[in-house]
Amino acid sequence: MNKASVAAQGVRMRAGKVLLTGCVALTLGGCMLLGPNYKRPDVPLPQTWRATSGETAEVVNTAWWEGFQDPDLDALIKQAIDANKDLLEATERVKEFEARLQIAGADKYPNLTYAVTGERRHYSTNQPQALGINQKPTQNDFSTGAQASWELDIWGRVRRSNESAVADLLASEYARHAVMLTVVDNVATSYFQLLALDQQLRLAKSTLKNRADALKLVNDRYKGGSSSKLAVLQAQSAVDEVWVTIPDLEHEIAALENAMSLLVGRNPGEIARSLDHEPALPPVPGGVPSDVLTRRPDVLEAEENLISANAQIGVAKAAFFPTFSLTGALGFASADLDTLADGSSKDASIGLGLLGPLFNFGATKGRMHQAEAYQRELSLKYLQTVQSALADVDDALVYNAKAAEIEKRGAEQVTTLTDLAKLAQVRYDGGQSDYLEVLTAERDLFSAQVQQVNRHRDSYLALISVYAAMGGGWMTEQDKLHTPAKPETARVQPKTSSAAAVAEEKNTPAAAIPADTHSGVSTATTTSQRHPQ
Questions:
Q1: What's the pTM?
Q2: CA quadruple 358, 363, 367, 368: dihedral, nearest 10
Q3: DSSP assignment, residue 513?
């Protein structure tokens, strides 16, 4: 090697050291983080609820449907959690955002690539550029090596992108929990609606038998001359009136069974249930958990979406500034394969690149304004979600309190109308009234009995609405307990998402909302520390 080559090599080494030193200094000094840190919007919370409230944290954290002591309902809910198609789709969306987080996180590290090329090329001898002395028009070019590039996160673009990706992942997990909450709520609600229809069908068939017996009796009296043709027609009308309700009820039962089959992830068919077993009505929860809003997946999802949008403002602001990239390459290049591995074939480079906007007619500023407007939009949506959640809780508490009162008064009404129907029959048998009085009393009694079946159903539905409005930690427990079953029409077998672990590692603000003596969320403004420091 001649002196010129040695000197040139020394210059390259010194230049590389200078670039490397500058890059390290930029990296160590690059602590700037553009964009606002997340602050939860102030949420005005009610001091009291319309209905009596206390503490029910432990109740809403457990599988509350087991309190009904109905094995058939337990089995249906397990099937739904394992195989409901909407829930399986939500699980796959969580996996999608897990992959997006992995992609965003990779930008924090150098990008390493390798390349192996071989080329044989014939150059034109008629081009203005000379090939050089003793160079042939046809040449070989072989090279192999590795390259590295690394964007120095001076302005925090990568960190803000990663912060947004973490929030998106958590939002998808909370969205999945919201689907799970809806599915369980729908299964339990539909189950008790189905039991009520069964009871109405039994009541209609029993009433039909009684009225058919009454028709026979009235008809016999008519033949014996002690009754009129009018009474026979009235009795026949009463039979027909009940008879036509039976096919309608049977159709409603079949339709509801098919809908429930879809809920539990299987083809339409019958739903197993005991017709003789009366589900227990567990005690009403003592009140509302103090941190009810941290148990509502829709509220948590809305906040994570807001956090993501807030981080995107930093990404948009970073676009105003240049990006610094450290690049390097190391390999071998030669015109002959025999000399490719020789020390003289080494080929290396190192550099620092700078790329920034110059003039794009306001596109960068427009994207920043778009990100800020979207963040304000999601802030309003978060507040609206909180208010809707509070309304759901208040509605459920009132519904639950009033349903018991209505059922109690309805039972008294049925007792009164039963006595009235018996008295009307006695009066008719004694010749003190016509058959219309008996028919009217029986119609009123049948209508009240049907309504009472619905009122009893509403007592269950009201309790379910309380649990649904409160959210609860039971969804996380179900993730651990249930292994998804193989669906009938798909081979997807999603596993429990790792988003919950990410939530614990990142210490999300929503999971750390302090409770005060009056509400589930502290109205004090807090600052998120989710981004890397």
A1: 0.77
A2: 50
A3: P
